[in-house]
DNA sequence: GCACTTTGGCAACACCGTTGCCAAAGTGGA
DNA sequence: TCCACTTTGGCAACGGTGTTGCCAAAGTGC
């Protein structure tokens, strides 16, 4: 009967101004909070009282919210906890099949698409070669074809399916390069000027008949990690054919006003250093990739570490996560090299704070595609834009 | 009768978890939104319908909220707009005398305190020499004395005055160096080890009997600028005896989990560059101050510009604001030097985006003290932590 | 003087989380 | 086996939010 999320996201107030909130927005907010905790709890489930404690809501409010979710088929009972002297707590879990989303990762030469259920589990995956030079129409057609093939696996789905509770939420598309996340328009695709200003979101949405969201690959990966359980604030550093970053501050992806945030590769860390393809001198990307090219992994990691330490100090983040093909090829060398720089910086500046931890981002080469799917699922759990 | 803000700030849910919202939180949120627009409108005022349009609330909701504010004495009628064929719109404005806050700026050798009214106008100011070496008790006593002298100017105020509608909201204290904003504890005061771990907030609050908030000088200045009308996201770069930054992202100050964000002076921009006092090499602060010391203002500005361009690219901010004694001494040279680097970077990376604008921050040497007062006033207008 | 437009308050309403209450479902001791 | 006790969680009533429908008030313009 009830809708857990009607898609309006509360009162509108379009534009830059902060918006007023009404009762509908209040309900969506609290419902999203509960859904987020249900998802985080996994198949074991959580009790109502635990949800109440962790949201700050009263137990009765949680009961009302979870009753709606159960009526909508989004949540279900999952056994009960051991008694502590009274009636045992009933555990609730999210129903994974209650919704799905598709994530598409347009890499330089490969298209990777995944079908993800409501809890974020990948339940379908496809890979296909990609040729951006074939033109926008051909690429859009190819992405649509792959998405439709995957979508056919969703029970009761198909084009035009409802937004929630059954079928497909939509398709998230992640790709490198500057673009406008809010409008879904590409600014520039390096090496393929015919893509400049292409309205990818509308083209794909018009063809598929489901919502489409477009974002930078690094932002998608960062969102996927944030939804996947990484807490607090962190930076996802992606080292592949280029170098970029996705920033998560306070649990939300920071994109900046023009989706330009995370421009990490062209951070200058060597005044008057070697020239970069961007025109500047001493960019991390140029220094790092040059070191990789000559086989100097320690040098590449050190350079990356210096830039990561700059970022960590500037934003006071909780951890640094590394990903991308180049990192995947030599994970140990990069993690240790970057961590060494962060340790040195922390010890020099004061004894109070421990060094920012560095890890390889979970998810591997599928992280971007999974994150792309979270562009649609995230808002359901309150992980939308900010 | 009614309280526009009861200080609880909605449901608690202390800790890192995102909190649930109840009706009280909803009301505070919308009330803060309306208050913020009233403050931004200035003495001319705004009409109810304009408030409704800009918040996304219905006119009737705005009427209810403004009726409460008028009953509380926070808002009042301010004439009416010209008719457009019907009943003319009644204009509403904030009552400046409805509340005050004190801001204290503990600089290296000077204590500057300001008394600010509800709309942010400075209505009192004091300056006194400061000697951090005199010990915590002496400094706390001195700050308390200055604050009490200023507070005496508030009609109907005094110690223990109510939090809203009459008297003093509290005292905001801004000072350099690492500290814990949430607990009001100093970590380290460069050159004065006896201050390590001093609970400044509690010491001062206990003595004055009003709420006290402590923050870094750069964060306070950035908050003051954000409340003072600077829109969107920006960085405030403070170049005085040291170099630091305050970051405003999406209208709110970004402090990071440990109030460490804005560590800008020790961004490394020259690998294996000259050693810095922090132990690292090639920090902007060392490079920039060395250039200033040898009279090379263009060089100092260029170095600052490189670091500013890194920051602007990483966070996709809307503008860069410069402040601090060194900038105040040579504003033209720094603004132009930094702007030149940002222009060059923008043109190299693409033709779409114009360069990030650079300006001298308004407020001058009083900006930090004014911002410190906003540490108390800001939350009333929804500009609290995030 | 009258028709019309526009503002903004009053009253009724739907619905949010909250509170008070109590049935259901367990434990543990007699 | 019974009973006192603890704990869970649903039902009902409640206060208070923004919303809707309605209309008096206050202007303009013919």
What does this structure look like?
Two copies of one chain form a homodimer. The first copy, chain A, is α/β, with parallel strands linked by helices and about 375 residues long. Chain A folds into three domains: about 70 residues, Orthogonal Bundle (Arc Repressor Mutant, subunit A); about 140 residues, 2-Layer Sandwich (Nucleotidyltransferase, domain 5), CATH 3.30.420; about 130 residues, ATPase, nucleotide binding domain (Nucleotidyltransferase, domain 5, 2-Layer Sandwich), CATH 3.30.420. The first copy, chain A, contains eleven helices and 15 strands. In chain A, the strands form four sheets. Chain A has a five-stranded mixed beta sheet with strand order 6-5-4-7-10. A five-stranded mixed beta sheet of chain A has the order 13-12-11-14-15, with helices on both faces. In chain A, strands 1-3-2 form a three-stranded antiparallel beta sheet. In chain A, helix 2 crosses helix 3, helix 6 packs across helix 11 and helix 7 runs antiparallel to helix 8. The longest helix of chain A is centred in the N-terminal third of the chain and has 19 residues. Chain A is globular and about 70 Å long. The two termini of chain A are about 30 Å apart. At the A-B interface, helix 1, strand 12, helix 8 and helix 10 of A face helix 1, strand 12, helix 8 and helix 10 of B. Chains A, B: Belongs to the ROK (NagC/XylR) family. Chains A, B: InterPro entries: ATPase_NBD (IPR043129), ROK (IPR000600), ROK_cs (IPR049874), WH-like_DNA-bd_sf (IPR036388), WH_DNA-bd_sf (IPR036390). Chains A, B: Pfam families: ROK (PF00480).
């Amino acid at each position: 009967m009830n809708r857990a999320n009607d898609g309006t996201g509360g009162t509108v107030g379009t534009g830059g101004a902060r918006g007023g909130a009404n009762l509908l927005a209040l309900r969506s907010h609290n419902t999203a909070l509960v859904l987020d905790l249900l998802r985080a709890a996994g198949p074991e489930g959580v009790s109502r009282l635990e949800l109440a404690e962790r949201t700050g809501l009263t137990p009765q409010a949680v009961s009302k919210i979870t009753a709606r979710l159960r009526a909508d088929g989004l949540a279900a009972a999952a056994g009960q906890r051991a008694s502590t002297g009274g009636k045992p707590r009933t555990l609730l879990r999210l129903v994974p099949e209650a919704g799905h989303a598709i994530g598409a990762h347009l890499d330089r030469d490969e298209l990777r698409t995944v079908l993800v259920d409501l809890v974020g589990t990948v339940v379908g995956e496809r890979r296909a070669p990609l040729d951006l030079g074939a033109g926008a129409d051909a690429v859009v057609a190819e992405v649509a074809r792959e998405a439709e093939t995957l979508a056919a696996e969703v029970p009761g789905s198909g084009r035009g399916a409802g937004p929630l509770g059954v079928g497909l939420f939509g398709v998230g598309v992640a790709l490198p390069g500057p673009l406008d996340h809010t409008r879904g328009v590409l600014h520039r695709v390096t090496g393929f000027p015919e893509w400049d200003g292409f309205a990818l979101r509308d083209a794909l949405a018009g063809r598929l008949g489901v919502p489409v969201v477009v974002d930078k690959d690094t932002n998608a990966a960062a969102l996927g990690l944030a939804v996947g359980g990484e807490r607090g604030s962190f930076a996802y550093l992606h080292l592949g054919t280029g170098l970029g970053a996705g920033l998560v501050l306070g649990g939300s992806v920071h994109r900046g006003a023009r989706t330009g945030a995370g421009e990490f590769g062209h951070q200058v860390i060597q005044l008057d250093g070697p020239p970069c393809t961007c025109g500047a001198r001493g960019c991390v990307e140029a220094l790092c990739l040059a070191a990789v090219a000559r086989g100097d992994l320690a040098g590449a990691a050190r350079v990356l570490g210096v830039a990561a330490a700059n970022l960590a100090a500037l934003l006071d983040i909780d951890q640094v996560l590394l990903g991308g093909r180049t990192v995947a090829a030599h994970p140990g060398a990069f993690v240790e090299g970057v961590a060494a720089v962060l340790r040195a910086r922390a010890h020099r500046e004061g004894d109070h704070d421990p060094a920012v931890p560095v890890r390889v981002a979970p998810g591997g080469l599928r992280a971007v595609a999974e994150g792309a799917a979270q562009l649609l699922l995230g808002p359901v759990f309150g992980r939308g834009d900010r």
